[in-house]
Amino acid sequence: MTTPAVTSKHAAAVTAACRAIESADEAPSLAELAAAAGMSPFHFQRVFKQATGVTPKAFATARRSERIRQSLRKRGTVTEAIYDAGFNSNGRFYEKSSGMLGMTPGNFKSGGKGETIRFAIAGCSLGSILVASSETGVCSILLGDDPHALAIDLQDRFPKAELIGADSSYEKLVAEVVGFIEAPRLGLDLPLDVRGTAFQQRVWQALREIPAGTTRSYREIAERIGSPGSVRAVAGACAANAIAVAIPCHRVVRTDGNLSGYRWGVERKQALLDREASS
Length: 279
What we know:
Structural class: alpha/beta
Strand order of the largest sheet: 3-2-1-4
Largest sheet: 4 strands, mixed
Radius of gyration: 20 Å
Low-confidence stretches: 1-6, 88-92
CATH superfamily of the largest domain: Winged helix-like DNA-binding domain superfamily/Winged helix DNA-binding domain
Mean pLDDT: 81
Helix content: 40-55%
Oligomer: single chain
Order of helices and strands: HHHHHHHEEEHEHHEHHEH
CATH architecture of the largest domain: Orthogonal Bundle
Number of helices: 13
């Protein structure tokens, strides 16, 4: 059992690390943070995660994501936001930003201005589900534990759009999505409003071509779209997908068949795959 003095020392080290991450233009490495705290990288990561609930890398990513969002909202152009958020080149910004924002910087900055987005939230066996549509088609299918958090996520994606709670006719669409989650054999064919970079849209189209009950590796998707060297970018496109199940990023796994990260939790990914395999 740790003593109060040790606990206090760890808390001070984590606080100092958080400040270092928040103030740095480029996130310090784990080794640098650990050295400043006088710990080994392995031990420091354990201490940091115990105190904050996330790893130093995840904390840094979340902070950078928030800086990007704030910059895009207050700056006149995307270029101004790039440098205000601490990026020193356009290329590095666009390489990272779509995964952090869940959409292209231009789409995020527009914030759905002039659009009307209808949405409804329901419950399903995977937790809560939010389905939202523009005039073009379904633009978001979000999964989670907290309905309020899903609504905030949608608002963050479309801060300038008019968000309208849908009527009973729209709830039929939500029921269709929930029905597919519970019984994949029913199939799901919805008009979609897909917002992303050209590369992301190529990846997402390839995902829609994966038959239910089967999986593909990130490498196979990269090869499928004619870009075999873009395995990491494919993984990033999967992570940026905000239309769960209709764009089935849950069907993409590691080359060895093991599950990797899923925006809405690996447990949900496993549950979806299990249901599709048995349907």
